[in-house]
Sequence to fold (282 residues):
Amino acid sequence: MKTITTIAELTEAITTLKSTGKTIGFVPTMGALHQGHLSLIERCKNENDCCVVSIFVNPTQFNDRNDLLNYPRNFDKDAQLINAFCDIIFYPTAEEMYKKEETEIPFDFDFKGLDKVMEGKFRPNHFNGVVQIVSKLFKIVQADKAYFGEKDFQQVAIIKHMVQLLRIPVEVIACPIVREESGLALSSRNELLSVQERKIAANISRVLFESLNFVPQKSIVDLQSFVIEQINSISGLKVEYFEIVDGNNLQPITHWTNANNIVGCITVFCGKVRLIDNIRYK
Ligand code: PAF
Fold:
């Protein structure tokens, strides 16, 4: 496994790989890697000749400065975890990735409404930053396939839309959520939870899984209220939103018959830590 920190060096490595007909798989990350990332990286390695992993805490996708400052970082631990499956780690600095003005003027992208709901509503400009960095990385890495976790359901939908709109020749592959034994969806942010909070946070997925038993008997509105009330009744948890949406366009639905692909997406504060999860109803 090789660590590359500059765009020039990575471009050279990619050009050499391409000239010898090698396929490239790519897993973009912000580090603080866990078994969820590892499942993407392992799959990436199995399906491609070369597996490239980027580790870059992207400043333009954070709307809360403290969140950016507190984001967990541990390059050595990350590198050790993925060593067996990753061929190239791309680990650039913010100066390498952005000209000064790019971080000052918000990147403007046509999301066709995908960004107006859920994470987009609560984290203004977050997806502009995600699209800004992922499109840049896609241009540099020129991967055949790129792997993303379905925990970030809205992010995957937006990246698929971006790839279509910008005609980037990469296959975007969404991979299933990986959970702790307790049911808690793996996330880099889990590192910020205390032992006690981690136990409490497991109730998020417990309630989501329980809610599956009420479909389609309960109406959408009643199921939403059920999930929100159950989670809010647990001391230490506070739901920011729980939306039941059409998985294709992310718009909220009102009846179970409104769509064939229905997903419940939730964000919950566990203490100060913001956690997301989702569940497929149909
Ligand atoms: O999901 C993440 O870790 C980030 O949003 C991504 C895709 C690496 C872009 O910074």
In short: The chain has two domains: 2-175, 188-280. The beta strands are 2-4, 24-29, 50-55, 88-90, 145-149, 171-175, 237-246, 262-270, 273-280. The radius of gyration is 19 Å.
